[in-house]
UniProtKB/TrEMBL annotation:
This is Pyridoxamine 5'-phosphate oxidase N-terminal domain-containing protein. It comes from the Bacteria. Residues 31-142 form the Pyridoxamine 5'-phosphate oxidase N-terminal domain. The lineage of its organism: Bacteria, Bacillati, Actinomycetota, Actinomycetes, Micrococcales. Pfam families: PNPOx_N. Gene3D superfamilies: Electron Transport, Fmn-binding Protein, Chain A. SUPFAM superfamilies: FMN-binding split barrel. InterPro entries: Pyridox_Oxase_N (IPR011576), Split_barrel_FMN-bd (IPR012349).
Length: 160
C-alpha cells in the first residue's frame, strides 16, 4: 500500500533537510526517547518513553521529572536516541545532553519557548522537574527503502 501524501521516488537531500526541520519546528511535537542504564549485574536495560519536544536554537528540549527513569538515565549517561514521525517518514536523532535546568530556575526564553512549542507548560509542576537541552550529533531521515542511501543529514553535530 502506498501513502498518497508521499511523492514517488526519493527526496533530494535538500528536501529531506527541509522536511526534517519543518517536523522539528512544528508545534505540539511528540517524540519517542530511548535511553539506557545498567542493571545491578551490568546488563544493559533499555527504556523508551514518549515525551513532548521543543526545538529551540537548534537544540532538542525535553521537560520531565529528573527522578523518572528517563531523567535519571539521561543525566547519568548524557545520551539519548529520539524518533519522530511514523515508520514510513521517520527522523532518528542521536543526541547528547548539553545542559539541564530546573524548571523553577530556568531562563525565561527556555521556559517560554518550550511552553509555546510543546503546548504544555511544566512550570506549575513538581520540584524535581527539569528541562534537558540536547545537542543533536547524528540525524537520519528516510521514508522508504529508496531513501536509505543518503539518510544521514547530520554527522558529528554538523549538517552534511
Amino acid at each position: 500500500m502506498t501513502n498518497p501524501q508521499v511523492a514517488p521516488g526519493p527526496r533530494t537531500r535538500e528536501q529531506r533537510l527541509a522536511d526534517t526541520l519543518a517536523m522539528l519546528d512544528s508545534p505540539v511535537r511528540d517524540v519517542w526517547v530511548a535511553t539506557a542504564s545498567n542493571a545491578p549485574d551490568g546488563t544493559p536495560v533499555p527504556y523508551l518513553v514518549p515525551l513532548s519536544l521543543a526545538w529551540i536554537d537548534d537544540r532538542l528540549v525535553l521537560a520531565l521529572d529528573a527522578t523518572s527513569r528517563t531523567g535519571r538515565n539521561l543525566l547519568a549517561t548524557g545520551t539519548a536516541r529520539l524518533s519522530l514521525g511514523a515508520t514510513r517518514d521517520v527522523v532518528m536523532i542521536d543526541a547528547v545532553l548539553e545542559r539541564s535546568a530546573r524548571v523553577a530556575e530556568a531562563p525565561a526564553d527556555l521556559a517560554e519557548g518550550y511552553a509555546a512549542q510543546a503546548d504544555w507548560d511544566p512550570r506549575p509542576g513538581g520540584a524535581d522537574d527539569v528541562y534537558l537541552v540536547l545537542r543533536p550529533q547524528r540525524v537520519q531521515a528516510w521514508r522508504e527503502v529508496d531513501e536509505i542511501a543518503g539518510r544521514v543529514l547530520m554527522r558529528d553535530g554538523e549538517w552534511v
